Amino acid sequence: MSRAQEFRTGDTPLPDVVILTHKLTRDYDMGSEIVRALRGVDLQIRRNEYVAVMGPSGSGKSTLMNLIGCLDTPTAGEYWLNGQKVSDLVDDELAHIRNKEIGFVFQTFNLLPRASALHNVELPLIYAGISARGRRERAAHALTRVGLGDRMDHKPNELSGGQRQRVAIARALVNDPSILLADEPTGNLDSTTSQEIMGVFGDLHRQGQTVVMVTHEADIAAHAARVVTLRDGLVATDQRKAA
Amino acid sequence: MQIRAQKLKSGFALIGVFIGVAFLIGAWSIVNGMNTYMTEKFAGTLVGVNTFHLRRSPNVNFDVDDSTWRAWRRRPRIKFTDAEAVAANLTVPVITAWYSEDRGGVEYDGKVAKDITLEGTTERYFDIMNLKIESGRPFSAQESKAGAGVVVLGHDLADKLFGSTNPLDRTVRIHDFPYRVIGVVERQGNLLGISLDKFVVAPALSPIQREVNPPGVVDALIVKAQSPEAMQAAMDEAEATMRSRRHLRPRQENNFVMMTSEGVLEFWNKLSRILYAVGPGLVGVALVVGGIVIMNIMLMAVAERTREIGIRKSLGARRRDILRQFLAESVTIATIGAAFGIGAGIFLSVLLNAATPLPATVSPMSILLGVVVGGGVGVLAGVYPATRAARLDPIVALRQE
Predict the structure, then answer these.
(1) A96 touches chain B (CB under 8 A)
(2) d(CA A85, CA B327)
(3) Is residue B299, in this structure, part of any structural domain at all?
(4) pTM of the model
(5) Residue B132 CB: number of other CB atoms within 10 A?
(6) Is residue B308 assigned to a domain?
(7) Does the first or last residue of chain B, that is N or C, have fewer Cβ atoms within 10 Å of its Cβ?
(8) Across-strand partners of A81?
């Protein structure tokens, strides 16, 4: 049983469905040819699921990740995030959605190199319009949650790779997003640190966080409770681990 | 944060505005100082208050073409007889003096002071020009009429020839003619760096007349009235006398001029209009260059920080957030540049005042303008790069290495 319920255009998702894509299509106009990166992806992810998206390169997983992360808009199809149809929002509206609903964790961490860990974690709160004092408290709390309460004033280059990724996770969580969206989160880490970060993801999942992770490493994907595999812009397999 | 991180580039951007604003304030202070100077001192020194000079042609002129100048040179000179007739026909209460000058050497005891203004005048000259005698006395009406060989010295000249000795009753020689020193005028200072104390005054009819003009000719008849209205009335009478003596028909133009301090000021106004027009142009160029430097540096900053912009956008920064961030940076750079520029401009004008004869005073208006212009350049130069930054696609920006 891979699909919770058949979705038709004009429907609204069930309340516990955080991510719903319906016939999601994304074409890239490369001038001489049109590359069809996604050819109609139907995917539903419920609250507190831990999903890994896999697939070979060129399968469309980065494109799907960008669409789910509201960094891009689909050519056709629908995308519902947390009960809101976001597939036809414009730039600044998407920025607002990213700020409120999505916590990104990137392969290359994407921290501001000259800012302290605390300031990096505060960034989403700045764009949410939180007061300086509120920002500080919440950022400090998020850093403590990922075990970096004693490294708040360190700059990224004073931290190890694992610690940097923890800062990024704290930044992703600080606005209480609907989904934690991780793109190859262990791609730049050694295996020990990778296990450590996977441990953090597992803890967050147990605390009720919805986690979506894009990876091409099977042993990393194995940490997830559900593995979706893409091939040629379509969902090829969708497997759930027995709990 | 980024400004401090990129000190060198920010520094260059800063210098652009800095130079512009410093130049603005410096240039403005010179024009401003000159203006005050001209209206308060120059015109009064050169011509005198409520005073006009009847001359063949203007001695302060500006932008005169060759043909006009040649026409002036063809005019008849003002003769002793002209000066006498004009003075005699004035009904308005005035004081008058003849005036002729040239440059030459003055000798005493083997020492020669060169390039001294030799002035042949009549006795009221000292009153008209408000020359106070420091020691001795001016020459009298009798000495003036008799053409006595007496002189009154300017302060610098007296210092140069006599040093600590008392010059009174000593004999100086001008072109081998002896003159007895009867007075020294108190120090007049300088005008645009030229000493006003290097002169001798002798009666116009004394042998000095051979040094300054052809026989029977004066450079000017100076007429001082008690009020502007009286001066105007005197000028009308003088004009009528001169026209009738020169047999000018009603349609013919005057072949003489009557210069007033207003006339001299008019000359200055023409000059300052040009300075006020050219100055802002040059300042504008400096600021445009500064602006372009800032714009380029901000564009470079945008290019270098593409990834940062991508990160910020992925975290929920809207276009206006990015726009605001980059604009704030360029305005900060420009404002700091302007602040330093104002400091340097003030310093420059103080320096000019102290080290050169140019009088310079800083006008508060120019400081205000410096701040506004500096900030404005920051905004203008920042808008384009900031817009580019705000429009970046977050996916593309994040992919940037």
Answers:
(1) yes
(2) 34
(3) yes
(4) 0.67
(5) 10
(6) yes
(7) C
(8) A19, A84
